[in-house]
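Q: What structure does this chain adopt?
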Amino acid sequence: MNIVVCVKQIPDPETPAASFKVDEAAKKVIPAQGIAPVVNPYDPQATEAALRLKEAAGSGKVTVISLGPDSARDAIKHALAMGADEGVLITGPEFEDIDNFQTAKALAAAIQKLGGADLVLTGRAAADWDMGVVPLGIAQILGVPCVTVAKAIEKNGAGLKVERVLEDGFQTVETPLPAVVSVSNEFGEPRYPQLRQIMLAAKKTVQVWGANDLGIAGEMGKENRALVLEALYVPKVESNVEIIEGDTPEEKARNLAQKLRAAKLI
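A:
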């Protein structure tokens, strides 16, 4: 089975609130000083799913793709250390300030350049924007089915059996291949790379493709966004506290009721 895993590097979700800053004019998050970006926390589960399917089949190939700056190599290297076979980095100035739909288009173009895939796996969503629409976009462009929020995946004849996470339970579905599946954190803990695997991954060459290599340069860029970002800001949270006075519990309760009635809350 030829499997492609899409991974992303994001700002560390554990960044202290005091260090999180937004440039409201540029509509961008300002990288926190001294805090390195990390692999999207849902993506190692997708890599783990790919490796388990490959191991169960006894053969296959797992290719990891990431779109981002040069530092996104670290996200690819992490997947390679887990056991993936090859890595591809999509990078370049054309990808600055693109939206989810352009991201899906770039990833789909890279998958097509690789010769296609039997299965494309992603995390359930990127924890920075938390939209979860890129897997659906990739599937639409490639013309294949998409199964989202998977907690279990197994080969089933010529297709897959996938258990999905719902708000009120679980759902088991079957899909033919090729397909796109987004993997949820309920899939389980991914394997942790050993030192030797990390060292071997560091020596592996990551292919680098730009927008021109993928034939999509004219479709990228902020000016070609389908989703317009109107504003980006840190919401201001304000709270007012008033202590209800009274000599006895009954008096306090009476004063509270009067306050609520005056505010037309009761």
